[in-house]
Write a structure and sequence with these properties.
482 residues; alpha/beta; Ferritin; Rossmann fold; 9-stranded mixed β-sheet; 13% strand; globular
Length: 482
């Protein structure tokens, strides 16, 4: 049912002139789904309050409730006579609904409340529907979806993930929001978060790391206390971009986290020297944007000043970790060998403040549409690096859109990493053996077969002349036969 509903929405949006691409599709679907989710959540909370004999205050009230503007009904049947449609619907959404929901940010009790999340989402979001008739059809399809059971949310979350993945494959900008889930799951297996630990992603994007960590930690036999901890005091994230923020919030909600601890802010605006113990976390999982450039005033927040966004994020993550905390961060492989002052200083800082115990070297094509190779840094804060275990991932095929990374590709890495076992694809480098001047951490597999030495130019030219002479002789022989 849900698959058909998503396909119906997609077909409707193809005819909507305000929807230009996959990014718009996910964004506009998200806010409609969000409001339907809030309606179902409100109904669930109202029923719980009635059973407990308590008063219930709706999250959204009056004309702005879902069943008053999006799906008015009489005796359970859709009421076409009172439903807004056409330009009237668009005017109501743009001029009344969005401003009302945006006002929640100012009236909410705090940033960790569902009211604040609603305000954040609708302050930044813009309705891109131009046709009130198409919007009406979309609303009716979404009204048929239910968020009431865990099974229903799970199915919706899988479909939503599929759309996020397609958005990630749609172009350069979309790729910012999608990290291959098999890679995320491998990073989580290595860091192995436990109930009671906090997990942070300062470049949260579509919240893939937090959603997968939740799936890893969630069990049916959790106590009520552990369940409350998992829901409210475990997952934290920050996101700069409006589209990514709403997708991240919606993705976490669909995965079962009712009020995600996501903040709509630029993590790099925080001066890392001001980070206190209460601000730190036990685990950091992230794939920060790389190749970007930050303003000079942002660079002032870091001891190692650089315009490279990923380098600033890595400094942020190191200082956001508690002593004994564990990190797993994706970064360009050029970080391991660049000789500029910032790269060398950051490698030295990482090696001195953390035990960089593992480097996972990823093959070309791991990230769709990205033209760079990447590695994953696994580290533990509190003691300097003594030695680092490398694993060079080789799935035995070219990765691409139709042949992506899968869990089986990473199974050997996860298993060997437990004991840091050396083998054909893995090896260990001692800190004492690194060049002290550069701290070069380049991936150089000592077990790889040696490449054949390059031939001298004179030898290449001689071979070419010999082949030309042989070709000339054959052609002369053919001409003699004519």
């Amino acid at each position: 049912m849900y698959e058909n509903a998503f396909n119906s929405i997609e077909n409707l949006l193809r005819a909507e002139e305000g929807i230009a691409n996959e990014l718009d599709y996910v964004e506009q679907t998200s806010w409609v789904l969000f409001l339907k989710y809030l309606h179902d959540l409100g109904s669930e909370r109202r029923d719980e309050a009635e059973l407990n004999g308590e008063a219930y205050v709706p999250i959204i009230d009056g004309a702005f409730r879902w069943n008053n503007w999006a799906a008015p009904k009489i005796n359970g049947q859709f009421d076409h006579n009172t439903a807004r449609i056409g330009d009237d619907l668009i005017r109501f959404v743009d001029g009344e609904l969005f401003p009302y929901l945006a006002s929640f940010r100012e009236s909410a009790d705090g940033p960790r409340t569902i009211h604040y999340k609603i305000g954040e989402v609708f302050t930044e979001l813009r309705n891109k529907f131009r046709s009130g008739y198409i919007m009406r059809d979309v609303l009716e399809v979404v009204d048929g979806l239910s968020f009431n059971t865990q099974a229903e949310r799970h199915e919706l979350s899988q479909l939503y993930e599929t759309r996020i993945r397609r958005m990630g494959n749609a172009g350069r900008n979309g790729g910012e929001y999608y990290t291959p889930r098999p890679l995320i799951r491998a990073m989580i297996k290595v860091t192995d978060p436990k109930i009671g630990e906090t997990i942070y992603d300062g470049a949260v994007g579509s919240a893939g790391f937090l959603c997968e960590a939740y799936a890893h930690m969630r069990r049916d036999d959790l106590s009520a206390s552990d369940w409350a901890t998992l829901q409210a005091d475990t997952f934290y994230g920050q996101e700069k971009k409006s589209l990514a923020y709403i997708i991240g919030v919606m993705n976490m909600i669909l995965h079962g986290i009712e009020a995600p601890n996501l903040l709509h802010t630029n993590s790099l605006n925080e001066n890392v020297m001001d980070i206190q113990e209460k601000d730190r976390h036990d685990i950091i999982l992230a794939n920060p944007p790389f190749g970007g450039s930050e303003r000079r005033e942002v660079q002032q927040n870091f001891p190692i000043r650089t315009g490279e966004t990923a380098y600033l994020f890595l400094q942020h993550f190191i200082r956001k970790l508690r002593a004994g905390g564990r990190g797993a961060v994706v970064i360009k492989n050029t970080f391991l060998s660049n000789t500029d002052n910032a790269s060398v200083a950051l490698r030295r800082d990482l090696l001195e403040s953390c035990q960089l115990h593992t480097i996972l070297d990823l093959p070309q094509g791991t990230f769709q549409g990205a033209g760079v190779k990447t590695v994953v840094l696994f580290f533990e804060k509190g003691a300097p690096t003594r030695q680092t275990w490398y694993y060079q991932l080789d799935p035995g095929r070219s990765l691409g859109k139709t042949n992506p990374l899968n869990d089986a590709d990473l199974a050997e890495f996860v298993e060997l990493q437990k004991t840091f076992a050396d083998g054909p694809k893995s090896w260990t480098v001692k800190r004492a053996d690194l060049d002290e001047a550069t701290c070069d951490l380049s991936v150089k597999n000592p077990n790889a077969p040696e490449a054949a030495p390059l031939r001298a130019p004179e030898e290449i030219i001689a071979d070419m002349l010999a082949r030309d002479a042989e070709t000339t002789a054959i052609l002369e022989e053919i001409r003699g036969m004519l």
